[in-house]
Design a protein that fits this description.
Length: about 250
Amino acid sequence: MSYEIRLIKGEKRVDFGEPVTRESVVNIVVNKIKEKLLSGELKPGDRLPSETELSERLGVGRPSIREAIKMLKALGVVTVKHGDGTYISESINENAIDPLIFSLIFQRGESKDLLELRHLFEVGYTKLAIEKLTEEDIADIEKALKKHEDAVKKDKFEELGDRELEFHFAILKATRNLLVIKVGCIILELLRPSIERTTRIYAQRAVEDHKRIFEAIKKKNSLEIEEAIKKSYEVWKEQLKEVYQK
């Protein structure tokens, strides 16, 4: 069974396949849109068919289409322009719901899993950063390190978690890879409770660990980076275990 969809000027002709007949139709509609984005048939800025036309084409009720569009809007995938139509977003709004962070929260597993995830990713993005490192990047990382050190010297314990994360965010930024930065920020936010706890209990040790990492980055020495990061985890992994066993 097939349907002809009348295209409005500027709309993208996309074959959404056969009408949906299974349960959980809202999720199925969302997945149909996702599939078309993955395949490249839909691209940022493309206009979707109207609610009525999508309903006819997919063989589902308009309420299901409406709920699917609401879900996609909350995720930042689509933008609804009243009186004009629904478009695939050009970029994801920073205020949009991020499902990946919730997925990681609910499936975080054992503390060992998180330790391995952070170690694997941190070593990887730091090595990537040194391949693209500029003098400005070095200055930004050093500035973040100095702010962390100053907070420790002035006993500003309430700031230490943020200062610790700023150091890592500065390294992430130096990768100039938006995907790496996005995933890295999510991982660090997931680990924020254990990072904040560790940097408060072992404040000076955290600064010294960062100094070793920074020196290895300046030298662009991959082996020293691995060793410095591994050493920085000696205390943190014990705190991680305590936080996530609660």
